[in-house]
Amino acid sequence: MNQERLANKNNRRLLCLLFFLAVIGAWHLAVRVAAPSSLIFPGPGDVVMQLFSQINSGELSKHLGVTMYEIVAGFIIGSVLGFLLGVVVEEIEILELLVYPYIVAFQTMPKVAIAPLFIVWFGYGATSKVVITATIAFFPVLANTIVGLRSIPKEQVDLMVAYTASRWQVFKLARLPNALPYVFTGLDVGIVLAVIGAIVGEFVGAQSGLGYLILQKNFSMDTAGVFAILIVLSIIGLALHWIVRVVAKKVLFWVNMSSNTTGA
Asked: Its topology with respect to the membrane (predicted)?
């Protein structure tokens, strides 16, 4: 059964690679047939050349480091705050009535609209981008934490209480393990949104970062350079998504064991 599962995984990877090559081929063919100006729509070859040019000049690594710091720092801060507040809201019911509606209202505000305020409050440096990123990554973790803590069967809690388990023991031994798959789902969403948050903040006001670099390439009409940076951002998002998935598999070992047993 394990060999069959491994073969299926390899087949999916091969299919994904073939689809990627097909997309690149279609892109190259469309550029060759339509022959648009490279200022409007560059071909894959032009984008790759620009990407290597930015890497060799050191321009990309300089701005990449700034953006990665904003993404990771904002994600960690937003995730920790989202998880802790989710636990508090679930444990203290009155807070859901008092606080949660305002959190939802704040989350519905377009971050592009309120980003200038963060720039005014925290400056043009990395701090304002970290705050913007944290506010975007915060809500998915908060919402999934609350849902996960509430998803535990009431009978399981009642049984533990009947055996004189304390509130902390119920949380540590039952509620938290049951909520962790939901929490990691929120983290998975949050890490992708963190990339968007950092770039939005850099668009509004920054002196460095990949978002700032995109604006500079736009001003100079370097469309191939913009495409190259977008590819880098896509790779960053995929890599961070993969890291969260790997950590989830390590932490949620009982879920993986359960699925393997079911498959067997």
From this structure: Multi-pass membrane protein
